[in-house]
Design goal:
The chain has 367 residues and is an alpha+beta fold. It is 41% helix and 21% strand.
């Protein structure tokens, strides 16, 4: 087998990629469904929640809404909301999906209700008038209706426009939070674990929500992409040949593992060894037949590997169905050994390992 490996010498900046910080919302993937975002907003907007940030986030929202029109029975009524008059109050009650309102903030002491329609990738077709009417029905004279979205929303039909105080973005909310006077104090001296974790969660929430990627990072990504395209253009055939060769080796070790599977099953039955769980599979150039023996609470695997860091044929055993007290040992046979010879040698190891496990002397680090 002769392969063109010149592509390995191709210059590339791929290794210089700066990984994105760990973010729980990226990990969840489906964490951006609106209801889950609503719940995060509810947590941080409520000044009495365990985050310990007090009115930091609700005040930031209020500052972002400063100067917008309040909504009356016929829509915008000319009254202007003054945020300064509402800052610092801890009398807010925050709910989600209240009469289908995504986030509903009510402050009876201040006589204010905020309807927050959270739009993530959807067209605004919600009954804003109905939402405003619900807020007014609670006897609150100042009703603010706002749309919160990742992108700037500017086009609304006339009916919605009449019952919409403003449209704001997550980027705008993030900036308002960053400008909050008390944020620096919290960051420099968090008072407890809840506050530290909440500050980190708030940062992750905003980072993931606004997709904050610096222009320099985009330029680096563009350079990497161009380099990779150049490599494929020059070495694509050689890379494809290498990948095919790797797949061939994978099939080779997999086929041998499959041939041994029925032979091992016959020998286990002949020895009276009962398995409760088995696994037969592989990954890339390594493949295995694994057997769990309940009488000893031990798992023994016969593995084949093309990885030079591993023996070509080896036995891997471990406690129960865990990876504790694991050991690796070469089977002691070359690839040219017959299937029957490999099966016999593996069974000898299985019997020995089970006996040691039952006697309580089978344990130790991987070798």
């Amino acid at each position: 087998m002769t392969l063109d490996m010149s592509f390995l010498r191709a210059a590339s900046s791929l290794a210089r990629t700066r990984p994105r910080p760990v973010n729980v919302y990226d990990i969840l993937r489906e964490g951006w469904r609106e209801t889950r975002v609503d719940m995060t907003l509810q947590f941080f907007l409520d000044p009495n929640e365990r985050h310990g940030l007090g009115t930091l986030v609700i005040d930031a929202l209020l500052r972002l809404l400063d100067g917008v029109n309040a909504i009356g029975p016929a829509g915008k009524d000319g009254r202007v909301f003054v945020a300064e008059d509402a800052l610092g109050s801890d009398a807010w009650e925050i709910g989600t999906q209240v009469e289908y309102i995504d986030v509903f903030a009510v402050n009876h002491e201040l006589d204010i209700a905020i309807v927050l329609e959270n739009k993530i990738g959807h067209v605004l077709d919600n009954p804003l008038q109905k939402y405003a009417e619900h807020a007014s029905s609670l006897g609150l004279s100042t009703v603010i209706v706002a749309v919160l979205a990742p992108d700037e929303r500017t086009h609304f039909d006339q009916a919605q426009q009449q019952f919409l105080s403003t449209a704001i973005t997550y980027a705008g909310l993030s900036e308002a939070i960053k400008r909050a006077p008390q944020l620096l104090e919290f960051l420099l001296a968090p008072k407890d674990l809840d506050q530290r974790r909440s500050l980190d969660l708030l940062q992750q929430f905003m980072e993931a929500r606004i997709g904050d990627v610096a222009m320099t990072e985009l330029e680096d990504e563009a350079k990497r992409l161009d380099e990779w395209r150049d490599i494929l253009e020059e070495h694509g055939a050689a890379i494809a040949a290498f990948q095919e060769a790797r797949s061939t080796i994978g099939r080779l070790v997999r086929d041998r593992r499959k041939r041994l599977e029925p032979l091992i099953a016959e020998r286990l039955a002949a020895e009276g060894l009962v398995t409760e769980w088995e696994a037969h599979g592989g990954l890339h150039e390594e493949t295995w037949n694994a057997y769990y023996f309940p009488e000893a609470d031990w798992t023994v695997e016969l593995k084949f590997s093309a990885d030079p860091a591993r023996p070509m044929i080896f036995v891997y055993d471990r406690r129960g169905l865990t990876y504790k007290d694991a050991s690796i040992a070469p089977l002691g046979l070359a690839w040219t050994a017959t299937d029957e010879e490999i099966t016999d040698s593996f069974l000898e190891q299985v019997v020995l390992i089970i006996a040691q496990a039952k006697a309580g002397i089978r344990k130790g680090p991987t070798t």
